[in-house]
Amino acid sequence: MENFFVRYKNPLALMAVLFIQVVALATQVKRPENARSGNTGSGTRLIRVWTVTAFTPVEKMFVSTGHFFRDGWHNYADLRGVRKQNRELLDEVARLQMEQVRLKQDAEQARRLQALLEFKERFISRTVAAQVIGTSGTEQSRVVVIDKGSHDGIRQDMAVITPDGIVGKVKEVFPLSSQVLLINDHDSGAGVILERSRLQGILKGTSQGELQVTDIMSDEKIEAGDHVITSGGDRIYPKGFSVGTVINATADRDNDPFLVIKIKPAADLRRLEEVMVVTKMAEETPAVAAGPAPMRAADILAQRLPSVPKQDTNAPKSPVGSTTGATATGATAAATPAAKPSPTPVKINPTTGTGTEQKPGNTSNATGPAKQPAGGAGMATANPVPAKKTGVEDKKPASSGQTGPVSAGAAGAPTPTPTPKPTPRKPRPPAAAPGSAPPGASEPKASDLPGTVSPEATPTPTPEKPPR
Amino acid sequence: MNAGVSLTSREEIEVHRFSWPVSIGIPIAAIFLQVFLRIRFFTVLDLPLLVTIFFAVARRRPIPGMITGALIGTLQDAWTGHPIGLFGIAKTIVGYLGSSLGVKLDVDNPGSRFLMTFAFVLIHRVIYMAISLQLVGGSEAWSWGHTMLSALVNGLAAVVLFALLDKLKLRN
């Protein structure tokens, strides 16, 4: 007998080790309820915790060092294109502001309807930003490790997202790190909706790391490029988050009347670096916002355009007759839609722009004469207050929009005042307005300018001598 | 006259030894690189498996080789979302077979190292899939193309890696 053990020592040792491992494996598999709750037996849990916790600080250090050098290089490289990018971003901001107004009104309407129906809404209340510091290292398990754990408020089954779309859910939580099961793992699943057709399905990962939606009948029409969003039915991922787009749809061989729809994930699951963990979801009936009155897109655009200054409704009315010839000119100009910026600077017509006295509080000028750049209608003003210039006004000193009366037109009430016949007079030299048009240099008539009226309709006050 | 030719020379059956830092540090470094380097190539390459094979073959003692494989596999399991033991069992068997094979064959030749690693990667994959499908109830699909590519890449990597690790052997 002793000879048997000595002779077969190695195979026996192998069997003993395998037996222990198989029993340990069976212990984990036999307790699915524990596995769901993350408590896969104290022994196996300890192995995970010790291993991951021991590696995490080193990984964090390597990741931080790598980011330090990479960011340093990127900061330098990015400076080269920052000016052009800034211009593009400003345009993008302007466009988005317009879009935001429209969406805000839609959202308000939706909230009102939801409130009427007592609809409970789930929304993201709090997130924790985390950095990906590792993976499972195998293709059999699509798991990434993030640098936030239970100390940061991370719990099991929390959704992990990026601005592009959903990434996965927290599978295991350790003190300093967590394991995230990606949505393309074959153990993963999520409830989704095809955005266009509103069909609901189940998102699953495959063993090849692909995403597919199942449980959609084959008689439904699915088109490549259809957007897929989360349905919120799984109580993990917030509703309406981007999942991906449809690549193609084929018949499910294993499940005949259904389709298998391949999805291209919205988030780049192979190059994850920073993610957000949704640590708190709130659920409440949306309250109808009682904020300020909605702003029209045209108002936003008007704010951005130099030719449309804000109308000061508190400004005192000017006496009759103080409305200058430029008043009507500018009034008509402003009567045109404000959303059309003038492509070329419009110069002031000296016949209407000169000889006018711009009094403070003139109704024709919402911003007041002090804000008029010299060279425009205000050029002839007797008001010695230095012109307050905006950047845009500097570039367009005599544009039709800068003539004081523009805002009168903006109010939609160009008021032609009966005045004496216009008397031509010599244009006065501009009062040191940087960038202003030189007097008399190819100045078109007001009637030639877009948005102006003819001088016949332009009431002009009695000219006065320029101050010496 | 005895004309029988042994498959192994005295040098070939020499049992190599390693210092403690190397015995512990190399497997940990392999696991660290495997989980830290988020490069797609590294998911095909199985560094912990290569290290398991190297130590098993170099030591030529089944029990240490087996235990080395069990420990490396279990540590690797900790990083996956699977139950712990899948890689552990697979690498235990590979470690045992590697050390048993090292006694009988010349495993210091680059060609034999390539073939041996190629075969061990296939065995490792078969064992892993068998456990995953039969014991754990997994739903992974077997892919011949991916498996052969993995075996080829690991075989080539083994030739280079083993040559580097040879320098860490303790010589009497």
Describe this structure in words.
The complex is a heterodimer of chains A (468) and B (172). Chain A is of the alpha+beta class and 468 residues long. Helices cover 29% and strands 19% of the residues of chain A. In chain A, the strands form two sheets. Chain A has a six-stranded antiparallel beta barrel. In chain A, strands 6-7-8-11-10-9 form a six-stranded antiparallel β-barrel. In chain A, a hairpin with a 5-residue loop joins strand 7 and strand 8 (211-217). The longest helix of chain A is centred in the N-terminal third of the chain and has 38 residues, at 42-79. Chain A is globular, with a radius of gyration of 35 Å. Mean pLDDT of chain A is 67; it is low at 315-468. Chain B is mostly helical and 172 residues long. Chain B has a single domain, classed as Arp2/3 complex 21 kDa subunit ARPC3 (Orthogonal Bundle), CATH 1.10.1760. Helices cover 70% and strands 0% of the residues of chain B. Chain B has seven helices and no strands. Chain B has helices at 20-36, 40-44, 47-59, 62-79, 86-104, 110-136, 144-165. The radius of gyration of chain B is 16 Å and the shape is globular.
Offer a quick outline of the entry:
The complex is a heterodimer of chains A (468) and B (172). Chain A has helices at residues 2-7, 9-29, 32-36, 42-79, 82-116, 297-304, 325-335, 350-353, 391-395, 406-410, and strands at residues 121-135, 143-146, 159-161, 166-173, 178-182, 189-194, 200-205, 211-217, 227-230, 242-251, 258-265, 274-284. Chain A has 468 residues and is α+β, with helices and mostly antiparallel strands.
